[in-house]
Amino acid sequence: MTLTAPRAAGTRRRPAQGRSRARETFLLLLPALVPVLVLSVGPLVYGILLAFTDARSGRNTETSFVGLANFGDLLADGDFWESFRIGMVWAVSVTVLQFLASLGLALLLNQDLRLRGFARVLALVPWAMPPVVIGLMWRLVYHPDAGILNAVLGTDVDWLNDFSVALPAVIVVGVWMGMPQTTVVLLAGLQNVPKELHEAAGVDGAGVWRRFRSVTLPQLRPVIVAITSLDFVWNINQFSLVYVLTQGGPGGRTRLPMLFAYEEAFRYGFFGYAATLGVAITIVVLAVLGLYLWRQMREVD
Amino acid sequence: MRRWSAALAVAAVVLAAGCSNGGGDGDGAASDGPVKLRFLSLAWQKESIAANKQLVDEWNKANPKIQVEYVQGSWDNVNDQLVTSFEAGDPPDVIHDDSPALSGFASRGFLLDLSGSLPSELKSDIPQTAWDTVTFGDGKGGQGVYGVPFLQESQVLYANKKLLDASGVRVPTSDAPWTWDEFAEAAKKMTKGGAYGVAWPMKSPVNKVLSLGLNFGGTFFTTEGGKTRVKVGAEEREVLSRIHDQLYKDKSADPSALGMGTADPLPGFFAGKYAMVPAGVYLRQQVAEQAPDGFEWVTLPPLKGVTAQQGATSQTLSVAADSKHPQEAVKFIAFFLNGPNQAKLAKGDWLLPTSTSAAADPAMTAKENFWDVATASAKDLVVAPYLKVDGYDEWKSKVATPTLQEYFADKISLDEAAKRLVEEGDKVLERYGR
Q1: Distance of alpha carbon B25 from alpha carbon B66, whole angstroms
Q2: In Å, how far are A98, B152, B301, B367 from B375, measured between CA atoms?
């Protein structure tokens, strides 16, 4: 733009040209914009509108606008807040554990090991599996009688049906499932840390731990912030894995908020209220994320 | 990015075209070709799937003008699947489900009221008590029949014959069943040498407890002036506290069996770890097939409290309100559930037929595999009050399941459990009354 503008004939024609440019740009954008509007913005707006109605499943139901009544019900809905608490425990612990485990794995894969390429491919395998397959596979691992876990440990625990063990057991699967993408992103970040910095720190007499803390971590920081925020959003929106593993049981101990909303809509038929839950979850996630990113930015400054 | 969007746009257009095409084909077939019905079946045992498919084949051969397509569903997610297909307006024509699920679908207008269209042979072959399990409000103040009940289940006891004989207790018969007191006594006597008298698999405790609750007149719900409330009084507490006593006072029931599903205690039962297992009559199939050689077992008739009544839930066939060929669908159901065919289906699923002519089939009263005990237990099946409660499903999964699980795990007292069932339950039900 800045290059071409001076070469344009006269100042007189510029506004018209700008307008036609804008129209051209818009026309060129259109093919990209239409699918976004139809497939993404449309349903979103519809969902938000639904949140202010009493829409219910049924052929003989009448939907009417109820204002903020759904949000009022939501504030008083103890079951939902319990589910939300579980969702936060799940999302935070999966994100943190995933990050720690992936960082370890990435550091390992960044070393000059033999068969490094092969090991890197192996670390990616969980990524290639759909969540439903992962869920089925881990259900077999956790099976109280036929499962490999009880066989190896010599225990007799019904991992997915025990009130106190179910959530941790599901969290382990969540960590396992999300590790590949976190590892890959961290590994890419590690490879961007300049070798010279490490060498300089080494010359100054810094040990391995000191170099990790003072060179690697600060260099990696933007990558860490980005991947942990993405992981958090992915994890709190997790649905398929838990649906396959426990369906929210035992007694609601693994009922993540998304599963709760799904049940409201497709099991009990309260479409309007379920949409409200979706909107509320989005707002809270955005708030949490905003706070986290804001703090990180401020620390950088 | 742009290439992606273009691809998506193309995909959307193709999809849309595909959908409208599909609709067109269906309409075309209606006018000239044979009528096509989709039959969603939930049969899952091997024999039962075979029996279902065989009956569909038989029908298709005899009725070239009405062709039925067998669609396999699963009990695990059938109700989610149905909600989406009902909302989308394209449900299967003939739907296999169970009576507790019908109430909600009926009140939302998804199912066809069959009361006027059923042939009289079918109507009179099935007793009124069974029809009551499928009669619900239509959501607009009326009543209708929203399915044809065909298979019923009662709760019986499975006992290890050796341990039963060794304990010296009176062996109950269908005419003189055990009372709950006798049962508790027998369980205590059979608890010895590392074996427990009974294993209560309570992974899904609610239907079981509510059904047995009728033994002492416990209904768990009352309706006054059109408003339904949860009730946990003295009658309702009987069965709850008796099971709890076996677990923690008599110590004749194994607490580690609580997390199990219905069929899970079987390995322990075969190994002599549990002398008795309470379960539905259908479990006879797994017991008969999986029992190791030389293992002797018996089916004991249902227990008796004040009465021997249990809540009946039945498997049902319904017609979708959105079906394009309701008359043909009803015809198919009438064929599928006639006496002889119900006997075949009941044998395949090891359940009790509702049809009186099927129940008279000699195979249904044979001593072999205790069909006689199972069939005799059908006479005490009555309509469970919870069948008619709008919002029962939500109460069950949000309130009752966790509360009962915690009560049986001895984490909360009976008073606290009762309080939660009622207070949190009323809150749930209130939403449906609006």
Answers
A1: 16
A2: 56, 10, 10, 11
- Inter-chain residue contact B87 with A57, CB threshold 8 Å: yes
Using a 10 angstrom Cβ sphere, with 0-12 exposed, 13-18 middle and 19 or more buried, the burial of residue A11 is exposed
Specify the CATH class of A73-300 in words.
mainly alpha
Q: What is the pLDDT of residues A45-101, one digit of tens each?
A: 999 999 999 988 888 778 889 989 999 989 988 889 999 999 999 999 999 999 999
d(C-alpha A124, C-alpha A212), whole Å:
24
Q: What residues form DSSP beta bridges with B149?
A: B316
Reading the block at residue B377, the tokens are 């237990």
Alpha carbon of A192: minimum distance to chain B alpha carbons (Å):
26
What average pLDDT does chain A have? 86
Residues B354 and B401 grouped into a single domain: no
CB A101 within 8 A of CB A181: no
User: Residue B347: how many CB atoms within 10 A of its CB?
Assistant: 19
Q: Are B9 and A252 an interchain contact pair (Cβ–Cβ within 8 Å)?
A: no
- Which domain CATH number covers B193? 3.40.190.10
Q: What is the pLDDT of residue A14?
A: 56
pTM of the model: 0.80
How far apart are alpha carbons B392 and B397 in whole angstroms?
9
Host domain of residue B322 = 34-152+313-359
Of the candidates A281, A273, A187, A280, the residue with the CA atom closest to the CA atom of residue A233: A281
Smallest Cβ–Cβ distance between B108 and the set A31, A59, A263 belongs to: A59
Within 8 A of A270 by CB-CB distance, chain B residues are 431
Q: Are residues B137 and B178 in the same domain?
A: no
* Alpha carbons B306 and A286: distance in angstroms, whole number: 58
Same domain, B240 and B129: no
What are the tens digits of pLDDT across the range B140-190?
Answer: 778 899 999 999 999 999 999 999 999 999 999 999 999 999 999 999 999
Q: Considering its fold, how many domains does chain B have in total?
A: 2
Mean pLDDT of A266-271: 88
From residue B405, give the alpha-carbon distance in Å to each of B11, B213, B262: 48, 16, 14
